[in-house]
Amino acid sequence: MKDPKISVIVPVYNVEEYLPKCLDSILNQTFSDIEIICVNDGATDSSRKILEEYKQKDSRIIIVDKKNGGLSSARNAGMKVAKGEFFSFIDSDDWIDYTMLEKLYNNITEYNSDISICAVHQYDETKQDIDDSNPYYTLGFFNNTFDNRAFSYKDTKSFIMDVCVMAWNKLYRRSLIEECKAQFPDGLIFEDGPFFFTIFFKTQRVSIVRDFLYYYRINRKNSIIQKAGKKFLNVIDVAEIMLGKIKDLEDFDDIKYIFFRKKVEDFIYRFEHLNPKYKAAFAKKLKRESSLIDENLFPPSMVRGKFRYNYFLFKNLKTGNTFFYEFQKFKLKSMYKLMEILYHEEGVYYLKYKTNILRIKKRPKFFDIYYSDDRIYVRILKKIKFDFKFKFSQLEKFNEDD
User: Fold this and answer.
1) Sorting pLDDT into bands at 50, 70 and 90, what band is 388?
2) How confident is the model at residue 402 (pLDDT cuts 50, 70, 90)?
3) pLDDT tens for residues 137-172?
4) CA atoms of 115 and 172, how far apart (whole Å)
């Protein structure tokens, strides 16, 4: 019997509620030359029984049983027994479009690529709704010059840390994975980045499919991300692994500040969602183990100039003083909220603060603003109720550009 074209690797752990939908979406693919390697990672619910029932109905399903070791361990175990020319990873609480494997296979063969990437729907379990607003998942950072061709990481340097690293919206050429000896870091969460960049930096041929072919379930109850426990500290370990990979690149200096921005954003996001009892440990680990505090590698004058907001939050976070971190965050967000109130009207104030120029649109009927002694003063001329939605990312981009 010949080997299948595609090995689909599905890690399974306590997902009895979601597993049938996932398996049905794989078994009913329009591309049928596949094997489905389901790695039972020590599930304690009925997931193992569900796998056996599906195996009886379709011989393409292969069950691998192992002790619980986490997602990385399960994926690595699946790769060891996979026989396909190409690998696909599907998480067992997600599902895929029935044409996903066919479209990725056609794309990877047409352009002789090593990796083919598709767009992703985020399905919010709480809202029971699909969210396509995040360009990280929608391939929004790739402009139309990336269509209908193969490219390398060098073509993505301006947004390299915004390329989706998740394992599951891709098809990989097996020979590249073996050549790179790529593995998911055992025992860590946020494991996708090290695996992806290990192979992304080694290939000259990556291609994309604009179609939304993967359904990523977010806000799922009992997921490790929802628990926000001590495992969140792994974000620091994973950043160190990824930094080790980009340090070897000839164009490291072109990428390192983009890396700094992205990883500080990750640290801040995980810290703010972390169970409060682990926050002190997070700050201590950051100060002790993170290379992002290396001022020789990331000079403060450079990162402060490029990413001012991130720099000041990170500066307080790495000292371990969570009070000043929260206070700094409050001050900065308050300032940007005020700026947004003023921003949406005609006319502009230009304010100099030390070496920085702030451009703020006027609300002359309600505010008078003036600058003196490195301070910005606001005088309220008329009381008004403000009804606005604060979108910080837009304001941060506005400030960086100006």
Assistant:
1) very low
2) very low
3) 999 999 999 999 999 999 999 899 999 999 999 999
4) 5
Cα 221 from Cα 17, distance rounded (Å) = 11
Query: Of 178, 179, 177, nearest to 196 (Cα)?
Result: 177
- Cα–Cα distance, 275 to 146 (Å, whole number): 40
List C-alpha distances in Å: 90 to 101, 123, 171, 265: 11, 15, 10, 26
How many degrees, rounded to 5, is the angle at CA 62 between CA 59 and CA 66? 155
CA-to-CA distance for 117 and 199, rounded, in angstroms?
Answer: 13
Domains of the chain: 6-220 (3.90.550.10), 230-320 (no CATH), 336-401 (no CATH)
CA pair distance 76, 347, nearest whole angstrom = 58
Model confidence pLDDT, tens digit, residues 33-72: 999 999 999 999 999 999 999 999 999 999 999 999 999 9
- Tell me the C-alpha distance between 181 and 199, whole Å: 9
Region of 390 please: left (phi>0), alpha (psi -120 to 50) or beta: beta
**Which of 112-116, 149-153, 271-275, 304-308 shows the lowest mean pLDDT across its residues?**
304-308
| 3 state SS for 253-305 | HHHHHHHHHHHHHHHHHHHHHCCHHHHHHHHHHHHHHCHHHCCCCCCHHHHHH
Q: Rounded to whole angstroms, what are the CA distances from 245 to 114, 194, 202, 234, 238?
A: 19, 8, 11, 17, 11
Beta strands (DSSP E) in 77-138 are 86-89, 95-96, 115-124, 129-131
Nearest to 339 by CA among 265, 383, 396, 384: 396
